[in-house]
Write a structure and sequence with these properties.
The chain has 14 helices and 11 strands. The protein has 338 residues and is an alpha/beta fold. The protein has a single domain, classed as Aldolase class I (TIM Barrel), CATH 3.20.20.70.
Length: 338
């Protein structure tokens, strides 16, 4: 997307001091971090063969996404869907300038990931004790100690390290989570060498108000450029929560093709914010994404058709085959009739 006209709706948002720190005469660039091939697929009961995963990644990259979380080196005993991660990483056709990070749970997983010539890994403690026990079978502090070993090794090896924190707003076992707890973990993550901390509302219970309160606390220990937003859309609050983060200067957003996702340890949590919905939303704000929404919609339909289930993306459902050029969709999203 080049020279996108900032729509009239943006002026309304500006009147409420929206994005005052980020928007001037030029729309900002937002970094989209696609998690569908890993976070999206891991909760699917139907096994997705290696060639389908590889093709999905290829389609997402062809649409212009530059960061695609592609695999997870967890034990197949716990997440069978990721049992072919080595084959996936060895078969993807890597495009220069595209980042293909992977999730690693421990040093064993890290050693396997290194054999696949990865440049970035992600580690994932929980923000609550209850979720940590269910997901990692240890306390939050013990989880941090374990992941520090992985982070230390990766930093020594010259890899980038990204840290996730799950259940940053609410937990299915512990209830609401205090923002200070998440700020503390964020600070520890950055001290360990994480270049970025992704804040995950795993249950999707957050609202713009609760997310804003959380971020105000976290921004006392981290800079906006060190943070990413990771919202599940369980209660339909994903995009409004995103606005709260953009307003505070955060410019990296996690999303999942076709709204795939969920979590086996968080019953009731629906999929992630759909990439198609995110891109359309950003089109409407005049934000530069360099992403072709027509191709992203095609990628979403590709994986949804294989899974035999309807897409969770509202944009994908509505757009149908009306557009062949993404610039026409830019005009639709921005109410630009010129």
């Amino acid at each position: 997307m080049n020279n996108v006209t900032v729509p009239c709706v943006l002026n309304i948002l500006r009147s409420n001091n929206f994005l005052q720190r980020s928007l001037s005469t030029v729309a900002p660039e937002i970094r989209i971090y696609e998690v569908g091939p890993r976070d999206g697929l891991q909760n699917e009961s139907k096994f997705v063969p290696t060639d389908i995963k590889v093709e999905l990644i290829s389609k997402i990259v062809a649409a212009g996404i530059k960061n695609v979380e592609s695999a997870s080196f967890v034990s197949p005993k716990w997440v069978k869907q990721m049992s072919d991660s080595v084959d996936v990483m060895k078969n993807i056709q890597r495009v220069p300038g595209v980042n293909y990070p992977v999730l690693v749970p421990n040093l064993k997983g890290y050693e396997t990931a290194k054999q696949c010539n990865v440049e970035e890994i992600a580690i994932f403690p929980a923000g609550s004790e209850g979720f940590s026990q269910k997901n990692l079978n240890c306390s939050v502090e013990e989880g941090l100690r374990r992941f520090k070993q992985v982070a230390d090794e990766a930093v020594r090896d010259g890899l980038r390290v990204r840290g996730y924190i799950s259940c940053v707003v609410g937990c299915p076992y512990d209830g609401p989570i205090h923002p200070k707890n998440i700020a503390k973990i964020t600070e520890q993550w950055i001290a360990m060498g994480c270049y970025e901390v992704s804040l995950g509302d795993t249950m999707g219970v957050g609202t713009a108000g609760s997310v804003r309160r959380l971020l105000h606390e976290i921004l006392t220990v981290a800079k906006p450029e060190q943070l990413a937003l990771h919202f599940h859309d369980t209660y339909g609050q994903g995009l409004s929560n995103l606005l709260a983060g953009l307003e505070l200067g955060i410019k990296t957003v996690d999303s999942s093709i076709s709204g795939l996702g969920g979590c086996p340890y968080a019953r009731g949590a629906s999929g992630n914010l759909a990439t198609e919905d995110l891109v359309y939303f950003l089109y409407g704000l005049g934000v530069n994404t360099d992403v072709d929404l027509v191709k992203i919609i095609e990628a979403g339909r590709y994986i949804s058709n294989f899974l035999g289930k309807p897409t969770e993306s509202k944009v994908n459902r509505v757009i149908s085959d009306r557009f062949t050029n993404y610039r026409d969709m830019v005009k639709l999203a921005s109410c630009n009739c010129s």
